[in-house]
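Format notes (please read before filing issues)

Several people have asked whether sequences and structure tokens are stored in separate files. They are not. Every record keeps both together, in the order shown below: the sequence lines, then the token lines. Line labels are part of the format and must not be stripped during preprocessing.
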Amino acid sequence: MVERGCPMEDRTDLRVVKTLESIKNGFAFCIKQKKFSNLTVTDLTAAARINRSTFYKYYNDKYDLRDFLITSTLEELSAQINMEPFHLEHNRVNISLDLLRKQLQFMYDHKEWYLILWNKNTELYVFDDMLHIFEQRTRENFSNLLHQTQNTEFHLTEKQELFVRLFSSSAMTTVKWWYEYAPNLSSADVSQIIIDNIKYGMRAFL
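Then the structure lines:
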């Protein structure tokens, strides 16, 4: 079994970086064309313009490639989403807006890749995986804020848990809408839409 992606010592080798990027781009091209179950390594290597031995140097099979690409993307997103300083009090909303804008800009910079992974041809539910990451980060922040104010271990109430899920679902759905229907909006515009939805549509849960 090969090590996924590439050995640590190769990660700064420009030739290796370009090869792995070619494989990733080949995967993206193929997923646009057909279902993952119908893909072959030959399809992937042809799209990436590499030979089979090069592919197998880095990945065991097409499943290993898909798993690596999705896992690394989710880990990167999880590390990027930081809801800790996220507040909804009136005098701190601007802080929340700026924080959300930066995180949405990161997501927009990865728009094309995320849309590939959300494609039903991957035969996985990557959008749901991202939604769960958003939920977890929001839940952690909510729990931390309550712990700070009450100085005790705190578990979310039913309404607070519902708020977490509604907010996360609304935010991710808004991002998907942004990608697909309103790509000319700025990250600041979309941040304001999400914040307004929280302030005026979910206030009863706060």
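For reference, the curators noted about this record: The longest helix spans residues 126-150. The chain has a mean pLDDT of 85.
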